[in-house]
Amino acid sequence: MISKKFEVKESGSLGRGLFAKKKISKGERILEFTGPIIFSEQVEKKPKDKNSYPLQIGTLEYIDLEEPGVLANHSCSPNAGIQNDRFLVALEDILPGEEIVYDYSTTMDEDNWTLECKCGNANCRHIIGDFRHLPAEVRTKYLDLNIVQSFIRKLFLAPVQTKYRQRKSA
Q1: Tens place of pLDDT for every residue, the chain, 170 residues?
Q2: With contact defined as beta carbons under 8 Å apart, do 46 and 8 qualify?
Q3: 1: in domain
Q4: CA-derived radius of gyration, the chain
Q5: In 3-state terms, what secondary structure has residue 18?
Q6: CA dist., res. 170 & res. 155, Å (int)
Q7: Beta strands in the chain, from DSSP E residues, in sequence order
Q8: Contact in structure between 91 and 145 (CB atoms under 8 Å)
Q9: Calpha distance 78→38 (Å, rounded)
Q10: Residue 143 is part of a domain; what is its CATH number?
């Protein structure tokens, strides 16, 4: 896929990655993640390699990512995030030459997969895992930015909505 917004380049220890060709403004859509819908049984049978990271979009549903989306790397300090389960959006202005990265943990609720983080940021968590294992302040920040997959968002916001309904009816 050819994009006016980004190009694929080598990303140090992370392999290939997506890099801004031009300034991408905060809130701007960068790409739509595409690929066939697969289920957890199929994910478990896939080889564990760099080009085989399905994107979780439901409790048991995944997008088996195709290029270029599969090339978007993780960072514990992301400049992009996923909205509406499949659209990568800039969280801040991304300048030409900057790598476009998102936090994989905003998409995960499996309890059976982790990955060593190599982002190298000062706030690196060293292990990429499920959203529920993120520090509370990071979870709150991501929920406020609306960059958490909808099926996970419902799990974390359900108690808040219940409390709100109870207060309203009192």
Answers
A1: 678 999 999 987 778 999 999 999 999 999 999 999 999 889 888 776 655 679 999 999 999 999 999 999 999 999 999 999 999 999 999 999 999 999 999 999 988 788 899 888 899 999 999 999 999 999 999 999 999 999 999 988 876 544 444 444 44
A2: no
A3: no
A4: 16
A5: strand
A6: 24
A7: 6-10, 16-20, 29-32, 37-39, 55-56, 61-63, 73-74, 80-83, 87-90, 99-102, 115-116, 127-128
A8: yes
A9: 26
A10: 2.170.270.10
Count structural domains, the chain: 1
Token pair of 76 as six digits: 């514990």
- Inside any domain, residue 157: yes
CA–CA distance from 80 to each of 24, 77, 103, 143 (Å)? 10, 9, 8, 14
Reading the block at residue 66, the tokens are 């195709």
How far apart, in whole angstroms, are the C-alpha atoms of residue 147 and residue 66?
20
Going through 22-124 in order, the beta strands assigned E by DSSP cover 29-32, 37-39, 55-56, 61-63, 73-74, 80-83, 87-90, 99-102, 115-116
As to burial, measured by CB atoms within 10 angstroms (0-12 exposed, 13-18 middle, 19+ buried), residue 90 is buried
User: At residue 145, what is the residue type?
Assistant: L
